[in-house]
């Protein structure tokens, strides 16, 4: 099984640039082209939150239009820039979005790897949290199939990254409790996250938690105390997670046109 992960699309209407620089719509088309061109083709694409920049209906409409070009089934997670109601309204055919009550949490059961998606959103806030209800949901789902290889998906990563301005708006509640739950289930193969617009890993609850590059802007690699949080227009990217039945192997890939590939001959 092959899973592509993209994240932090921050969709706005075409030409409506964030901070006067970033035109997210111009970046999503090449991302979709890159995924469609993959051989072997991924079985599904996980889009781990910050789907839109401001959670506005017309941003979801543009997002949907762009994703119609994606020839691979995809699953959407909300991030802190999203609005649950607007997301649900824009994708009424995505039944898994509609079922979670107050939260957009769901299980994807029809692949060799089981996937459990958590909602870390606190409406109108940048940070995330996992309240007892959301943690209980995960614990109950994991208890259903404790021997089946499982991925946990969420927008805010449950660990500190050293990019202090992002850590201040990280998962501010529920991370220790989440780690205790996951530590009880060695069948959790990985915790896949977004939010950081970079690739970062940490050991977590006996598995690995990781973040993924954004499809548009990246966050500057600036550790420690800094006067401000900065973004950088480094090459956008995605991750390709290859499940061969025993372990999950993750490839980091960049989006864009580069010279080659050339044979070594
Ligand atoms: Fe983001
Ligand atoms: Fe985010």
Automatic annotation (TrEMBL):
Calcineurin-like phosphoesterase domain span: 1-198
GO terms, molecular function: 3',5'-cyclic-AMP phosphodiesterase activity; metal ion binding
SUPFAM superfamilies in UniProt: Metallo-dependent phosphatases (SSF56300)
Source organism, top-level taxon: Bacteria
Assigned keywords, A-Z: Hydrolase, Iron, Metal-binding
Database matches in Pfam families: Metallophos (PF00149)
EC number: 3.1.4.53
Enzyme class of the recorded protein, top EC level: hydrolase
Family: Belongs to the cyclic nucleotide phosphodiesterase class-III family.
PANTHER family named in the record: CYCLIC NUCLEOTIDE PHOSPHODIESTERASE CBUA0032-RELATED, PHOSPHOHYDROLASE
Annotated protein name in UniProt: 3',5'-cyclic adenosine monophosphate phosphodiesterase CpdA
Organism: Achromobacter kerstersii
Phylogenetic classification of the source organism: Bacteria, Pseudomonadati, Pseudomonadota, Betaproteobacteria, Burkholderiales
């Amino acid at each position: 099984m092959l899973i592509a992960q993209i994240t932090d699309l921050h969709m706005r209407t075409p030409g409506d640039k964030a901070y006067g620089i970033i035109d997210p719509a111009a970046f999503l088309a090449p991302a979709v082209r890159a995924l469609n061109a993959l051989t072997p083709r991924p079985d599904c694409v996980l889009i781990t939150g910050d789907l839109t920049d401001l959670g506005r209906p017309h941003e979801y409409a543009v997002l949907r239009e762009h994703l119609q070009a994606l020839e691979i089934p995809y699953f959407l997670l909300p991030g802190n820039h999203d609005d649950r109601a607007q997301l649900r309204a824009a994708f009424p055919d995505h039944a898994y979005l509609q079922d979670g009550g107050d939260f957009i949490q769901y299980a994807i059961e029809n692949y060799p790897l089981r996937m459990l998606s958590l909602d870390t959103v606190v409406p109108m806030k940048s940070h995330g949290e996992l309240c007892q209800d959301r943690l209980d949901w995960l614990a109950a789902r994991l208890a259903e199939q404790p021997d089946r290889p499982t991925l946990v998906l969420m927008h805010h990563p449950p660990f500190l990254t050293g990019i202090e301005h992002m850590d201040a708006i990280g998962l501010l509640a529920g991370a220790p409790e989440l780690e205790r739950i996951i530590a009880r289930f060695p069948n959790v193969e990985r915790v896949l996250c977004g939010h950081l617009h970079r690739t970062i890993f940490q050991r977590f609850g006996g598995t690995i938690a990781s973040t993924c590059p954004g499809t548009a802007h990246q966050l500057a690699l600036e550790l420690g105390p800094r006067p401000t949080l900065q973004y950088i227009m480094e090459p956008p990217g995605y991750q390709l997670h290859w499940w061969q039945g025993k372990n999950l192997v993750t490839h980091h890939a960049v989006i864009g046109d580069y010279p080659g590939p050339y044979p070594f001959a």
